[in-house]
Amino acid sequence: MHAFLDFEAPVAELEGKIAELRSLAQGDAKISISDDVKSLEKKANKILNDLYLALTPWQKAQVARHPDRPHALNYIEHLITDFVPLAGDRKFSEDEAVVGGLGRFKGQAVVVIGQEKGSDTASRLKHNFGMAKPEGYRKAVRLMEMADRFGLPVITFVDTSGAYPGVDAEERGQAEAIARSTDCCLSLGVPLVSVIIGEGGSGGAIAIATANTVLMLEHAIYSVISPEGAASILWRDPARAKDAAVALKITAQDLKKFGVIDEIVPEPMGGAHRMPSQAMDAVSEAIARTLQAFSGLSADLIRTQRREKFLGIGRSL
pLDDT confidence of 42, banded at 50, 70, 90? Predict the structure, then answer.
């Protein structure tokens, strides 16, 4: 059973009762629980549906960070066949926070790049919680330049709270690496599709999300700073993260309205962590539509579309 978030307490209570009934039935075959289970499941589903139809920005942030939510490696395994991982930036070292390589998406050769948070303690430490260092962004640049050289579309999966803020990252030119990765995105003559699958945090996200089309899952978040960080700066009180989440307009619905993203990918009821395969299938369909729309376009047209898209953000507000 997956972990429940604080606001899901009523659902957790009902699902706990369902589990108790099933346990009793296993101990005594004479006990009939089907009607009771159906009634409780119907009630739990209604509560869950009502909750997710009215999520606050802060609640969406909690859903976007859910530990059971599918991560970049899950998407790569589910969507990409013949995947060959490529490592290293050819300058300093390998950064496990950024995963990438060659593969096929629905039979089409592509380059895939993703920010991987990890799914348990060991993998989170290995992938540095998805917070890339300069070598991670330089690896992304290397892979994108290779894609451009061989005419391969690029798919990126964005899921990071932000670039790694440590001293060693700053010593190796974190800001410069992010800027060059963003510039590389803009210069590509092949289609670039980015998917915000969880958190899209600041420059750490935009470095691989300056795309022709930016897709965003329904309950993901995308912002210039985390709600906690904004609350610490504005009010010197991280506890006001809920207020910051509202003010920052971090939800997919707000960002679609502002033209920052292009399409919202619907999630299963209760979030992507409840039905990962269904969520990833929806992402697959959205990526396929996007790549089809750019099929046959010249490199100049692809670059121009991407450039005009970002220059146009905010102009009509």
Answer: confident
